[in-house]
Amino acid sequence: MLVPLAGAVALAVLLGVAAFVIFNRDHDCSGGKLALRVVATPDIQPALNKIAGNYNKAMHSIDSKCVEVTVAKEAAARTANGLAAGKINADFWVADSSLLLEGIRKTQGGQGLPEVEGSIATSPVVLAAAKSAAAKLADSLQPSWVNMIAAANVANVEGPGRKVRVLALDPQKNSAGLAALLAAAGSAKEAGQDKALVGALKELSGQMASDSTALLASLTVKSGSKVPIGVTSEQAIYAHNAKKPEAPVVALYPKEGTLSLDYPVTVLTKDASVLKAATDFKQDLATESAKKTLREAGFRSSDGKAGDALSKDKGFVPEVPQALEPPDGATVARMVQTWSRLNLGTRLLTLLDVSGTMALPVPGTNMTRMQAINKIATEGLGLFPAGSEMGLWTFSTHLNGQNKDWKELVSVGPLSESIDGALRKELLAKTFSQIEAKPTGDTGLNDTVKAAYTELTKSYQEDKINTLLILTDGAGNDDPDGGVKNAAILQFLKKTYNPKRPISILLIAFGPEAEQGKQQMDALAKATGGEAYIAKNVLQVRDFFLQGMERRLCSPNCDG
């Protein structure tokens, strides 16, 4: 009986030795520790930190060293800027969106960025509203990107914006904000709402929250009679509600579909051993255990699968939302540039025609041309934000002395600046309302354009869109004293215009004779990369000003 027992003991000892050898071969830390520095966006960092803790406890060995993963949090835009500048202190990066990476690749510093190595989670970008306001919102705005654009369009004063206030996330700092902007732009273009998009972008630029946390908190703050809605990721809403706030928020899924944050992995290290560690940790992130941890934090798996955190009773739609076609890198880069240009300040000098024909009545209305033009100016200039710089000249013949066809009424400067006890904005409104036509005055347009364009060129400001706005009932230049001829003013503008310091002419004409001067109007505007419009009625001016804003985005290459 002892022989078999001795054999069994020997076998057990051998098996134990084998197990010990195998265990230590896979968990050999005799060479010390091998650090793997991970940087991740703040929303996913806590979940990754939990996964990394379990990974470290399992003692993963690379070249006789146990891998020790640390996970730091940093906004993706900041990490991206560091990469572009060649300053990054990480081996492994988990951004929140491939859209951000595509945008970086189009920059000079981002051309050498390593390729993305898969996605570890997703979170759809959705609309959001306070749960208490959701029922009220359902009566005024069905969740869709096109409806969001309509509500935010600054020029659509009779639209859903009367009942809804839209909040945005800065697309230059927040990937959810960029994804929402791209989804809205694509949907608006599909619906033929390009001009509405420009009006919405202009309004949203002044309704931005710094991050999702601030935006979601703002949704629960009363804003008069308007219901606030915003855009954020599904996971951000889960995280907000998980803190059990007094006013929870619900997710509203756009009917057109949406884009999702996809949390791409980018391996940054070039060290051979650290590269092995990065590969091993990336494989661990693909395990069911890691996926479960991410789903418990409100994320979906890379295939869109939701966990219990995104259940229907918590206000979410567990099914995978319809996906919009992801834009390519060039589209992302253009949108970022569009946003940047749209948010440049405005510096605008308005030239108002006060020649005798402006006193004539407008058929079918009880207004003179001057009154109609003043209404146009008030409508259009009201679209510009308070930080804009504006001024006003009038023009006709012999308006300010025998040989001067223009007169400065309000100098160009900030609308919020005080002039003799009144804000420039108030002074402009008052001045417009009091201007009358000069009964015996002729147009004198060309001399005025030359003087105004020269003035704007001398005082050009790099951080603003510099524009010369002309409001008239026609582009004729019937100066009896001669003055600058049509050919000469075109030659002057072509010679003076500098595409590196562009000053564009936006010309809006209103009146039955306007069509006769359309050719000269077009020539004046095109010489500076601008545009000329003829208004058939006062309401058209909103579209014209939006079209003018739209051209700001492509200047100086709007026509090819």
UniProtKB/TrEMBL annotation:
Cross-referenced Pfam families: SBP_bac_11 (PF13531)
InterPro entries, A to Z: VWF_A, vWFA_dom_sf
Signal sequence region: none
Limits of the VWFA domain: 347-549
Name of this protein: Substrate-binding and VWA domain-containing protein
Species, as recorded: Nonomuraea rosea
Organism lineage: Bacteria, Bacillati, Actinomycetota, Actinomycetes, Streptosporangiales
